[in-house]
Design a protein that fits this description.
Nucleotidyltransferase, domain 5; Homeodomain-like_sf; nuclease; nucleic acid binding; hydrolase; elongated; five-stranded mixed β-sheet; alpha/beta
């Protein structure tokens, strides 16, 4: 790499060879080891501005050089953004926006940056704007860790020893007025989708296994202990004597006295285990819920209760014949522990 003084000397020699000695631009480029375009630029500059055009100037920044934030500082920021939320750092933001990152840099290092510069740093660090997954404030991280590290592995080991099946169950409601999905439209013109003004719905209870099995019941009315018991009876009938380990959330119906008494009488056939509170992301059945809502409410808008019931049942029957789709739900990072 030439010094500034050496660069100026080469420029003066090359221009003198072309202007004073009649050497061609291409020949001068070969002699001094630069391109003909570079020599041509020097000569044109000399002819326009004289000797001042050949003087050594301040070299510009190379890519990544002399950044406002040195590498060690950038490493600390990346670690902080990955591991903490703004409110944990007492910043007046709930999400990591450009404004939040700029405030973090200002408060921690006393450096003021433009939002565009903050955005460039975020892009360089591999961060992209994403819709966050919501987690309940009430969720207990210790209970979640205990479930993942101790409780579920123990259930899995017992089921393997006993030759039992493990199923994850959940319930959901479908409503005709539920907004679902997006549609392309010209910018500034919100699309209008026709739908019925009537309000109706149905409910679903379903159970899935990591082998691709699916059992379900679609029903109208409230989810009660009687409905739950009926579903459990169906699961036992399909199991044909094979023991079941059923994993559910903390819904009040799952903890009902009548349900617990019914389960106690059949302890050799079925055990129910509850997930940590406020942790729906740990239940693979939640992914089937989302899949069903999309199929029943987005692909076709039901016009009446019968259409909603038929469409929901049809989709779930289709999924029963697609065990590879059910198995794919268990590949999601939050439920991969159950795969």
């Amino acid at each position: 790499m030439w010094s500034q003084a050496e660069q100026e000397r080469v420029r003066r020699l090359a221009v003198a060879a072309v202007v004073g000695q009649g050497l061609s631009v291409a020949a001068a480029g070969r002699v001094f080891g630069v391109s003909r375009q570079t020599v041509s630029g020097w000569v044109n500059g000399f002819r326009r501005q004289g000797e001042s055009a050949l003087a050594a100037g301040r070299r510009g920044r190379r890519a990544g050089e002399q950044q406002a934030l040195p590498p060690w500082m950038q490493g600390q920021l990346v670690q902080t953004i990955r591991g903490r939320n703004p409110d944990q750092l007492r910043l007046p933001f709930s999400l990591w926006t450009r404004e939040a990152v700029r405030e973090l840099i200002r408060s921690r290092y006393g450096i003021e940056l433009a939002l565009t510069t903050v955005g460039q740093y975020l892009k360089r660090w591999g961060f992209t704007p994403q819709k966050p997954v919501q987690r309940a404030f009430e969720q207990n991280p210790v209970a979640v860790a205990r479930w993942l590290e101790r409780e579920y592995p123990a259930i899995e080991a017992r089921a393997k020893r006993e030759g039992a099946r493990i199923l994850w169950a959940d319930e959901m409601g479908l409503r005709s007025d539920q907004a679902a999905g997006r549609s392309f439209a010209p910018r500034g013109r919100t699309p209008v989708v026709g739908k019925t003004g009537r309000r109706f719905g149905c409910n679903v209870i379903q159970a899935v296994s990591n082998r691709g099995e699916l059992c379900f019941r679609v029903f109208e009315g409230s989810f009660t202990q009687a409905v739950y018991r009926d579903f459990l009876k169906r699961l036992l009938k399909q199991a044909a004597g094979r023991k079941l380990y059923l994993i559910v959330d903390g819904h009040p119906v799952h903890r009902g006295k009548n349900v617990n008494a019914w389960l106690a009488e059949r302890a050799e056939l079925i055990e129910v285990h509850r997930l940590p509170g406020y942790s729906p992301e740990l239940n693979p059945a939640e992914l089937l819920n989302n899949d069903t809502k999309h199929a029943a409410l987005t692909r076709r808008r039901p016009r009446d209760p019968d259409e909603l019931l038929d469409g929901t049942r049809s989709h779930l029957h289709r999924r029963q014949k697609q065990p590879h789709v059910i198995r794919s739900f268990f590949h999601h990072p939050d439920v991969a522990y159950a795969a």
